[in-house]
Design goal:
mainly alpha, globular
Length: 137
Amino acid sequence: MNQADKLPLLHPTRHLFAPKERATLSQFAGIIIPFDSAIAITPDEAEVVDMIDAMFTGSRIVYPTAFRICLWLFEHGTFQRKRLSQMAPEEQYTYALSWDKSRVYLTRVLFKFLRVMVQMAYFNHPKVKERLHYAPQ
């Protein structure tokens, strides 16, 4: 048994994210999955925030805490004047790209972790699967 197995589980009926975190995650999802994609379903319509919240329900507290820390770091950034929520859409995209292309390994890993979680939630939504003509076997 490792140390993470000893940590308590999250309460299954409680939301993981505070309203500000939900807003940041929604903005991040909008950067990662733009509305002008061929699927034409926004991350909000695909309920990305709720789906990520549900993914962590019942998990060990260390995993959602790590996700929240990554989200906080992305929102507040490092050595920048503005938070993500205060940037114009073009600035948000440029900022996200800077994390993806950073020379600092940890920055790239944190960005990829957030991006993968958003993509998993988005592409797992029934409406998105239907638009992709995906029928699991």
